[in-house]
Specification:
- This protein has 320 residues and is α/β, with parallel strands linked by helices.
- The chain has two domains: 2-118, NAD(P)-binding Rossmann-like Domain (Rossmann fold), CATH 3.40.50; 120-319, Dihydrodipicolinate Reductase, domain 2, CATH 3.30.360.10.
- It has eleven helices and 15 strands.
- It has helices at 10-20, 34-41, 52-58, 73-82, 97-110, 124-135, 164-167, 169-186, 265-268, 278-291, 300-316; strands at 2-6, 26-30, 48-49, 63-66, 86-90, 114-117, 141-151, 191-198, 204-212, 215-224, 231-238, 241-246, 249-252, 255-257, 318-319.
- The chain has a nine-stranded mixed β-sheet with strand order 14-13-12-11-7-10-9-8-15, with helices on one face.
- A hairpin with a 2-residue loop joins strand 12 (241-246) and strand 13.
- Helix 4 runs parallel beside helix 5 and helix 8 packs across helix 11 (300-316).
- It starts with a strand and ends with a strand.
- Bound molecules: nicotinamide-adenine-dinucleotide.
Length: 320
């Protein structure tokens, strides 16, 4: 199979390294910063283009993988789908639900697969949490809290992440991971309430409470204008026990659970913890292509739903 990787900044390079480790996968890359891309790739056999349209025209691709800034996702995905290519695209799906719908329409019209790379659905601590919820081994959920905290992302190309119209800010760029996981596992909440702290110095925090029948889920996302280590954790309390993911460990009622070790942030060079899941999500999408099956683990509609939930959160949030 041959992939056309569009964008080889922080996340694109994580994906690139996943493809490099896969047998029989050929890669072409498109990034407007050709010199930067070549410097990173260090492999003359990988063609590098400044224009993704040219790459799509000249290379015999099976699919594209879009790892560009979020405000570019919709146009690029629609272009690739209209040119007959299956499309994997980084999260968030787009910067508005209208754009997300445009992507869905293009996928349906072309008959080509579209999957948004909601990696948390593939990360071992969250796969484990979902298995505990689905099996009811600890009874029904009582309360779940998920944190995702990071230094404000000042490392992106042209600082696009700090421009709300380009990234959607902390809610759509960061907290969307946990927001997406919440409705992936539990479906639409009965109601939600939120608080948004905009500290005007690149420190932004959003906390949301999703109400379900008999329990609630709280997601907290924060960008700090300070050099702090990235952390993504949860504490899930059930009728008969608890599960937590903390400090890189998964704990079930006080006992550490062993799951397969994934990559670390040192391996990827990007601000992540428990950075497994990337190779799995890519392998899953490629398997869907090979089998001609819709990627049911992350449907385009559910990814659009995440964008819609963020839109709702920003609408109802108490601004502080
Ligand atoms: N799943 C995750 O854990 C995770 C983590 C970080 C970022 N992301 C997502 O990945 C995407 C990329 O984020 P990033 O951190 O890699 O950003 P980045 O700024 O590091 O990289 C973006 C890259 O896109 C390139 N680019 C810009 N315009 C282009 C164009 N027209 N054609 C080709 N290339 C172009 C830039 O040169 C840059 O190399 C975003 O949607 C972000 O939300 C996901």
């Amino acid at each position: 199979m041959k992939v056309g990787l569009i964008g080889i900044g922080g996340m694109g390079f994580v994906h690139f390294n996943c493809y490099k480790k896969m047998e029989g996968v050929k890669i072409a890359v498109a990034d407007i910063r050709v010199d930067m891309a070549k410097e990173k790739i260090k492999d003359d056999s990988v063609p590098v283009y400044a224009s993704y349209e040219e790459m799509i025209e000249k290379e015999e691709l099976d699919f594209v993988d879009i790892c560009t800034p979020s405000y570019l996702h919709a146009d690029m995905a629609v272009y690739a789908l209209e040119h007959g290519l299956h499309t994997l695209c980084e999260k968030p799906m787009s910067t508005s639900s209208a754009e997300a719908q445009r992507m869905i329409d293009a996928s349906e019209k072309s008959g080509k697969l579209l999957m948004i790379a909601h990696v948390v659905r593939f990360m071992s601590p969250y796969v484990y949490l979902k298995s505990v919820i689905d099996s009811c081994e600890l009874g029904k959920p009582v309360h779940i809290i998920m944190h995702r905290l990071s230094e404000a992302p000042k490392w992106s190309w042209e600082n696009w992440m700090l421009v709300p119209e380009k990234s959607g800010g902390v809610a759509l760029d960061l907290s969307v991971h946990d927001i997406d996981f919440t409705h992936y596992v539990f479906g639409q909440p009965k109601s939600l309430s939120a608080t948004y702290h905009d500290l005007k110095n690149n420190s932004n925090h959003v906390s949301t409470v999703f109400e379900y029948d008999g329990f609630s889920v709280e997601t907290v996302g924060g960008w700090f204008n300070a050099s702090i280590p990235f952390r993504a954790e949860y504490l899930a309390v059930f009728e008969n026990g608890y599960v937590e993911s903390k400090g890189g460990k998964i704990i079930n009622c006080g006992k550490e659970v062993s799951v397969e070790a994934g990559m670390t942030s040192e391996d990827t060079g990007i601000n992540l913890s428990g950075a497994d899941g990337y190779a799995d999500e890519i392998a899953y999408f490629m398997d869907c292509i090979k089998r001609g099956r819709q990627p049911m683990r992350v449907t385009p509609e559910s990814s659009k739903n995440s964008v819609e939930l963020v839109e709702k959160i920003l609408k109802v949030a108490k601004k502080v």
